[in-house]
Amino acid sequence: MIARLQRSLGARILQLAALNLLLLIAIGLAASGIRLPRNFAELVLQAAEPRLQDVARRIALDVEHTRAEDADALLERYGAEYRTRFMLARNDGTRIAGANLAVPEAVKHALAGPRRGEGRFEFRPPPEKGHPAGVPHQRSFPPTAPPDPQTGLRMPQTPAHLVSMGHGPGFWIVLRTPIRFAGEADIIAGSLLVVPYGLFRDPLLFPLRPLLWGLLALAVTVLCWWPMLRSLTRSLGQLEHATSEISQGRFNTRVGVTRTDEIGRLSAAIEQMAARLGQMVSGQKRFLGDTAHELRSPIGRMQIALEILNGRVSDAERAYVNDLKEDVDALRHLTDELLLYAEAELKERGGGAQLAELRPIVDRVVARESADATIVVDVPHDTTVRGDARLLERAIANVVRNAVKYAGSAGPIVIASSASPRSIALTVSDAGPGVAAESLERLFEPFFREDEARNRRTGGTGLGLAIVRSAVEACGGTVSCKNRDPHGLEVQLVLNKT
Q1: pTM of the model
Q2: Which CATH number fits domain 40-206: 1.10.8, 3.30.450, 1.10.260, 2.60.40?
């Protein structure tokens, strides 16, 4: 399935569209001055940091109006609101309020270590508190945010820090936060720790609304692109199927694509090409059959004339007449096979509505061809296939005759059948030497001989197996062959069931 998707044009178009979208997003971020994240944690924090900073500010302001003994309840309410866990802790890792969790050493290290842009917290009380304006309680680095107009707390603009753990709570997020409880003047240099139950289940890190908008954008993209991709791939699939059928000699195949674009014009051109090829091939086959048929009469007269001549010549001249008779007999045999081949090629493919009992056909072939070899038959008597019985008998006879000729003395020839839900496979196996691997695909070509040195006496005309293929295909089946292990040849005829 994965390999098929990798070869699919639609999948490639979607991959290219996704790559194009990612590149456009990257260019937009670069143009707006946003730094691209270096890892997944930085990506998560970069997207969630505005929300984290806002929550940290809200908690700090609420803590300002909350007594220390009520801080646990305050953080519990925030935890229920955001479905996560909050903890206030000193920068040495000591818990102040919130979730009662043991702070890991890695988080303590993150709390103690300064980060770029971070300074000490500063608190400038309002004038009505009795403190001189502009005099801080603690000295600090230059503030990065203006003080809150009501509390005087300056919220540091330091980036959130995510610590990944291998056990216990998986992630801890550290946010520097000034802590001052109601009724107390001193500010504690501490941090807000956010401990999600799960990185992808935390609405603070992954809010549902942006996700829904992203899914909506994805759905709109699919709705816009899918009809075109589906139509395109379906049309290309029809073209692929049609050209495959045409390559098998079914020139009456129609593509069935009704489009007005380039693919529609291509399908029309393919149909025209197939029709033209069908006319040319049909004309050649008819010419071949007509020529073979017309040659039978003069060859017959030549045979009669040679028989008469054989009775009138001397014994010294009779050897020449016998050689001529052999040549004329070979010519008659060639024209007969050419006629049979042309007849099978001109037969309409598919087998029509004819049904044939396979076992009687095999029995007749074995009775004729088993004189010089042992043939074992393993075909059930109730096996019925679709096809012309005469063509099937001719095809099976040629295969068996070929096996007897080249492997009859090497062992028994086995004719067996096996059934599948939609077809019957008839195999003819021998124990002979087999054929060269590079010749397997060409055995069914007309006039092909595996050994170029063979002549008509040693290798036949080269039409026997070509007739087999034409006859089987005319019955709507297929034929193939393979070498057996350790030696031998197996020819398989696959025929449609009723």
Answers
A1: 0.51
A2: 3.30.450
